[in-house]
Amino acid sequence: MPVTVTFTSENGAERWVRSFNGKDFSSLQSLGTGRNEHLLVERFGVASFALALVLDGGRLSLVPRRWSVLGMPMPGFLLPRGASFEYEEAGRFHFDVEISAPIAGLIVSYRGSLEPDQG
After folding, report:
1. pLDDT (tens digit per residue) in 35-80
2. What pLDDT shows up at residue 95?
3. What is the rounded CA–CA span in Å between residue 112 and residue 85?
4. Which helix (H) or strand (E) holds 74?
5. Which of 3, 22, 41, 54 is most buried per CB count within 10 Å?
6. 76-89 burial code (b ≥16 CB/10 A, e <16)
7. Residue 40 domain-assigned (yes or no)
8. For residue 64, what are the domain limits?
């Protein structure tokens, strides 16, 4: 399905809006501070996820380390997990995202590549 991704600056962070065939999925990414220092924090609504960026065989893996809801730390055993990574090949940005949660199972899975808008 067609996907577009728009990046905009927002108060020292970066808003990512992914549009899957006209349906938007938005998150805010920022540098972690305090206990999340050295991690990337991605916020989806009231939930925030602190992710380690790990270079692994030419791929950049996003490894969940902790999460919170409304700023309250949540139990690690309920932390959503998955194999999410990105890489560059032949000048194109490629991504593979899979997120699942204990009890709930698969939440989202998508993969593909992006190229800059020529417009």
Report:
1. 999 999 999 999 999 999 999 889 999 999 999 999 999 999 999 9
2. 92
3. 11
4. none
5. 41
6. eeeebebebbbbee
7. yes
8. 3-114
